[in-house]
Amino acid sequence: MTGELALIAHIEEKQRHMSDIPNPDLRSFDLTTAIWRKASASGGEGSCVEVAQLPGGDRAVRDSKDPRRGFLRFTAAEWAAFRAGALGGHADYD
């Protein structure tokens, strides 16, 4: 599994548990002016995620195939932990 597919799986898992999060403000953020980026290594196969940087170092992540589905917001600490794991090979499931 590529890093992008692993991130999509992580996002879907987090979506399943969003109701367990006591702070509903994690999803209530206006992203109409957000600048969404895809990985430069993203191919045309459509399994991509887009990331937007938010104030305070937080990140929003959405599925590029269906951006209307919404986004997930990660705190700066969550994003740093995910990034460290991905760069350390923990997202490689081949």
UniProtKB/TrEMBL annotation:
Top-level taxon: Bacteria
All residue ranges annotated as the DUF397 domain in the record: 36-86
Protein name as annotated: DUF397 domain-containing protein
Organism per entry: Streptomyces prunicolor
